[in-house]
């Protein structure tokens, strides 16, 4: 009789603690899952395989590999650039690179984003009022590197006259710094680097050869 009474009295307590534990468990799951769902909401419309390349307070830029390359055939992957507006949470594909596009990095020229052969990485131009990104990619010759300034609003690009890629941004004036290599034309031969400074419109501001002799 005494044992039955203890069991009977303990049932409500067990039910109460069970419900309490279950509620705490769900609260914990929601807290853990909240960042994931927030991230998904930010990236709504993006391919699931898109990878964050760069971001600032206003936008995030993603890269997605739409088609894998073939190293044995010296075939570059096909990559697309996606932009997410953080205020509206809207995403859009800015352009898709074209590994078969013709290119010329001996002179600066205006092109479409889709004429960039490949994309290794992307940097957002640090000046807030400059809605542009810098796209850097290996060229199909697997030797030179192209650097292009792309307008986020239009997808229009300026491919710069340089062949050795991105260096950084000048902390003083915000200009883009890129590199090229050039050759010594003496008996010793060899090559040296040249650093170029471009503004956001693709205008050459300055250059500096880093010769050792």
Q: Label the overall shape.
A: globular
Q: What is the mean predicted local confidence, pLDDT?
A: 84
What share of residues is helical?
Answer: 10-25%
Along the chain, the helix and strand elements come as HEEEEEEEEEEEEE
Into which percentage range does the β-strand content fall? 35-45%
Number of helices: 1
Structural class: alpha+beta
Rg estimate, integer Å: 27 Å
Question: Tally of extended strands?
Answer: 13
Measured distance between first and last alpha carbons: 103 Å
Low-confidence stretches are: 1-14, 33-42
- Spatially, the strands of the biggest sheet line up as 5-9-8-7-6
For the largest beta-sheet, the strand count, sense and barrel status come to: 5 strands, antiparallel
Structure, described:
- This protein has 213 residues and is α+β, with helices and mostly antiparallel strands.
- It contains one helix and 13 strands.
- Strands 5-9-8-7-6 form a five-stranded antiparallel sheet, with no helix packed on it. Strands 1-2-3-4 form a four-stranded antiparallel sheet, with no helix packed on it. It has a four-stranded antiparallel sheet with strand order 10-11-12-13, with no helix packed on it.
